[in-house]
Every structure is written in structure tokens, then in C-alpha cells.
Amino acid sequence: MRSHRFYTPWLLMLPALVWLGLFSVWPAINTVTLSFTNVHQLTGGHFIGLKNYWLLWHDPHIRDAVLNTIVFMVICVPLLTLLPLLLALLVQRNIRGIAFFRTAFYFPVIASAVTVALIWKWMLDDRGLFNNLLQTMGFVHKTVPFLTDRWLLLLSAIALTVWKGLGYYMLLYMSALGSVRRDLHEAAAVDGAGTVRRFWSITVPGVRGTMILISVLIAVNAMRVFSELYILGGATGGVGGQDVSIVMLVQQAASGSDGRLGYASAISVFLFFLTAIPLLFLTRLNKNSQEES
Amino acid sequence: MTATTAEDSREDRKRRVRGTAAVRHPDRKGRSPIFDAPTPHGLFFRYLALIIVLLISIGPMLWELSTSLKSKAEDVYTQNIQLLPHHPTLGNYGEVQNTIPVWHFALNSLTVAVINVTGNVIGATLAGYVLARLKFKGRKLLLGVFVATLILPAEVTIISKFQMITSMGLGNSILGVCLPDMIAMTNVLLMRNAFMALPREVEEAAIIDGANVLQRMRYVGLPSVKGVLSVISIFAFIGAWDDFLWPLLVLQSPDKLTLTVGLSYLNGQWSHDPRTIAAGTMMALLPILALFLILQRYFFRGVAQGAIKG
């Protein structure tokens, strides 16, 4: 019995196929093409070979951005891999009021990066909550320049990112924790293994797959940072212009009355290869574990 | 979350049908692998930890809310920290209205969000159903192309999309903001996974009864993927409401901005008063949090059914 006519699948998929072509496949190809040209928003352009990549290689802003991205990753990956797991363990048990806590922990995820960055910007202000608290408690005697110092600004953006990400990764862990074997825990407890020991020897190996996936996600997301730094430090990247991310440079190059789309595309291609590194790592790892089993 | 045991075991069956590794047993659900025996002592520290994390996660938002309610007469910079405003006022919210056309911006954001949800629900359901349930030539290849797009971060292709939207004459328009995200490939794949869970036999019975593809999708498929569909809708709405980089690129004239872009201009360029900026921030934050509170039941239930976005 025939379940459908030959053209039905294509007809139903038409909208998705148009979007797949127009806004996924074509832009991917076109970004690469554009990166070899000096196309501007208004004036057009022509093929210039690898010149954009040569410019990119010598652009000091790119160096700053790559350095910032590395710092971002080095701090975010361990913190956001571990803390949300603890959080997931904390909210896992159905005790009274737990739904309220789970929802509230997810609030920073729901809020837009712009609003939470504005909230943090006010707390980190020279005369804001953090500085006032630190001075009242006597930890510091001078204003801490959270938003104007080159490294403190970057660290503030990282802290904001970690804070905003906690709930998101907590949720990913929550479903993974369901498959951690309870009998192992009981057996280990009977054998006298403490909470910490059981965490590292049973819980962590039990969610290992999710953990790897999450750390790859965090690394990729660290490379895509934009709004947090843009709002905290301003459009040009802090006082010295060094607190920029790669995406901020893409946006900077492309905006303005006559945006340099060619150069912006070259940075985009560079960004793609960076984000491909953790993903390749992931597929490698998956392959290895499949061969093992 | 008010999942009952009956629902849980139903989910379990679904999981087993799908053959996922994460088979959850109803009796295990909700029990922590670490803190097991419910001693009063353990419970106390558990609640203490929960409250500390609660303060960390919503404390900053409460501080911003408090600032937005403080009157001009109250010193917001003082070291003598006051969480509750002395004379709470909504004056700062009026100030936002006088500085930027905030209702207009909110309407723009809402428009983008509603169009985004509609497009994704229709587009992803249709394509997801076809990819999961219909056999046709080239299905595997097509599925591969959909999956391949996942490795492309949106930021990488944003310049090319920007050029395309401008050349279509949609630069600086709300339609231009909506268009690229109206059908997200991730959602197509999520819907496909959801439809895959459906047992073959049910559908075969429907075919024998003479139901056509659309009827099967509507009456056999859709009822079992409601959870995933609601998560997709919630994410599409939030994603559109919160998006910043894309509308920042596309929109230029100050009368056409979305809320996030308008806020970024309010901050520092159009206002220096932290109370006004706080009020503006709250006007963008409170609606989306309220919406999430209303829908959180469906959200967490859908997530438990496997609709997690990677």
C-alpha cells in the first residue's frame, strides 16, 4: 500500500528547503567567496586573492581577540563543566519547592545577554554595588576599575558568562543524571565511600559523555562571545580597545556607512575554523569510544 | 514541575521505544545519587545551598529592580546600601518613555518573536515529520545536509546574510530581522527526532484506514510531540526577543529598533542615569521572565521528553 505520492515529501518540506538553501548553505558558500574580495556595503568590489587573510594575520586587534578568546575558554570550560553538575545534583531530588528553585536558576538563561550585561554593568560601576560592598567591608580602599581595566573587564565578562550559563548546562546535566546507576552508589556507600569519593568515582564517570559534549559546547560558545563584552566595555572594546572578541571585530568591520564585507567575511571564515577545532575533537573522541566498546 | 509517576512511566516507555540509553526508572526519579537518606541535617544544608544559589542567580536582577524604583531624591551611589527604595516610584519608567519610544521597540520585538515562533512551528513540523516518517529518494542525503548545518555557528554566516537581506531591499526593516531565523535547522532536526519516537504500527493502521499524510501528521503525529513542539516555540520566542547582534547589524534608524538594540543605545548614549537605564532593562526583562513563568511547566516537561538544544 502506498503511503503517499512521490511529490508529497518535497511539497511539505518546501519551506524548510528554501530556508536551508537561502539562509544556511548559500551564506556558507558566499562567506568564503566574499572573503577573497574587497566588497563594500555600498561600492561593491572585486577579487583580491588572499589579501584579506594577509591583513587579518597582521591585524593587532585580531591578536587581542584571539588572546581574549583563549582566556575566556581556559576559565569558562572547567568552571561551566563542573559547577552546573553540582547544581544539577542539588536540584535533582524532588523536595518541597524544588520547582521554584529550578525555574529561578534558569532565569539568567532566559534573560537576554544585553539586559543581564546592563545589570552587571551597573553592579560593577565605579560607584556601584560591588565597589561599595568591597569598600564597606574593608577589602579595598580604592575603587576597583572593573569596567576600565583591560584584564578586569575581560574577567568581568567571563564572570557574567559563567553566571548566565549555569542554569543552561544544569538542565543538560539533569537529564544525564537520570541514567547514573543508583545501585553502584548504594554499593559504594555500603563499602564506605564518602560523598566526594562517590561523586568522582560514580557520578562523574556516569555522565562522562554529557560532560565532554558540554565542555565542547562551552568552548565553542566562548569563541562566539559578543553581547557581554559589547555592553560591558562598549562597542570598541574597553578603554584601550583591547577587550574585543572575534565576533565584535566581524561586526565592527561590517557596520558603518560603507562596511568592509570582504574583510568581515575573512574574519568569519577564521572564526569557523576556530570553532571547528573543539567539534573535531568531539568526533575524534566519539570514534575512539565506539572502537573501545 | 508537577510530573506524576504515571507520566514518568509513559516517558519511560517512549524512551525505550526510541532505544535511547537514558532509561529512567520511575522509582529512581528525583532521588539524588549523592545525598540519599533524607536526614533533617542534610535537608537543612540542601536548602541552605539552594538559597545561596538563588541569591546569586536572581540577586542581581532584584538589585536592578530596586534601582529602577528609586526616586531622584535617593542617592543610588551611596555606600550605605539600600535594597528597598525609601520612596518607591515608577517615575523612572516614565523617564524611559520620554527618552526612547520604548513601547514601539517592544512591539517590534514582539512582532519578530511571534513571526519567529509561527515560522518555526510550521516549517519544522512539516519538514521534521517528512524526514522522520516518509520514505523517499534522497532522504539520507538530505538529512545529512541538515545535520551538517549544525556545525556552522550563526555568527559565521552573518555577513553574507546581511548582504543578502540588504540586496533584497529589506535592510533596516523588521521583516529583514525576522526572515533568516524563521525556520531554524536545529528545530527541524528536533522535530524529526520527536516524530521518530512514534511506533510504526500506529501509523500503518492509519494508512490502512485511508488517512492521508496531512491527516496522519495532524492526528497521529502531533499529539505525541506536543512537549518538544512547546519547547521549540518557547526557545524561538526567547531567542528572537533576546537577539542582539543580528538586529544591531540590520536596523539603523532609531525609530525601527528592537528592544535589545534600543536598550544598548539608551545605555550611555541617550541616558546616564542608572535609574532610567535600570527601568529600561526591567521593561525588557520582566515580560520574558513572566512568559517563562507561565510556560515553565510545559518547558521542563518537554525537556524531559528529549527536546534539548545543543
Write up this protein:
- The complex is a heterodimer of chains A (293) and B (310).
- By secondary structure, chain A is mostly helical.
- Chain A has a single domain, classed as MetI-like fold.
- Chain A contains 13 helices and no strands.
- The radius of gyration of chain B is 24 Å and the shape is globular.
- Residues 1-35 of chain B have low confidence and may be disordered.
- Chain B is mostly helical.
- The two termini of chain B are 22 Å apart.
- Chain B contains 14 helices and no strands.
- Chain B has helices spanning 5-18, 40-68, 91-99, 102-133, 139-148, 158-167, 174-178, 185-196, 200-208, 213-221, 226-242, 245-250, 259-266, 274-304.
- In chain B, α11 (226-242) packs antiparallel against α14 and α13 runs antiparallel to α14 (274-304).
- The longest helix of chain B is centred in the middle third of the chain and has 32 residues, at 102-133.
- The chains are: A mainly alpha (293), B mainly alpha (310).
- The interface between A and B is large, with 111 and 106 residues.
Task: Describe how the helices and strands are arranged.
The complex is a heterodimer of chains A (293) and B (310).
Chain A lengths: L7 H28 L15 H8 L1 H33 L5 H13 L2 H11 L5 H8 L13 H28 L4 H9 L4 H12 L1 H16 L3 H7 L12 H9 L6 H32 L1
Chain B lengths: L4 H14 L21 H29 L22 H9 L2 H32 L5 H10 L9 H10 L6 H5 L6 H12 L3 H9 L4 H9 L4 H17 L2 H6 L8 H8 L7 H31 L6
